[in-house]
Amino acid sequence: MQFQNILQFDKARWMMAKRLTIEGRVQGVGYRASFAGKALALGLAGWVRNRQNGAVEACIDGDAAAIETIILWATRGPPAALVRNVTIEDAGELLLSDGSFKILPTQ
């Protein structure tokens, strides 16, 4: 029983959740679909959506190294994007997720 608790703690130590706001020319360039594909390839869960102010917002959870990788990708985005800024915030607790990644409607 004690061994199981150590494994759960160790897994939680390497997991995290982040909220990203990506600004620039990021709508109408395939950013959301590309982000979702990259997130799934990295084994991340969460969602991505356009914002009415022209930004893209994403909430991701998973392995810390995978999150670092997608944050680096987010600063460039797909070829037609021109990313001006990426704001990164802790999303608090890990998302309750079935392991899927969704593209949500604009908000």
Please describe the topology of this protein.
Layout: H1 2-14, E1 15-25, H2 31-41, E2 45-50, E3 56-63, H3 64-74, E4 82-90, E5 101-103
Parallel strand pairs: 2-5
Antiparallel strand pairs: 1-3, 1-4, 2-3
Q: Can you offer a commentary on this structure?
A:
- This protein starts with a helix and ends with a strand.
- It has three helices and five strands.
- The protein has helices spanning 2-14, 31-41, 64-74, and strands spanning 15-25, 45-50, 56-63, 82-90, 101-103.
- By secondary structure, the protein is an alpha+beta fold.
- It has a five-stranded mixed β-sheet with strand order 4-1-3-2-5.
Q: Top keywords for this entry?
A:
107 residues, 5 strands, 35% strand, globular, disordered N terminus
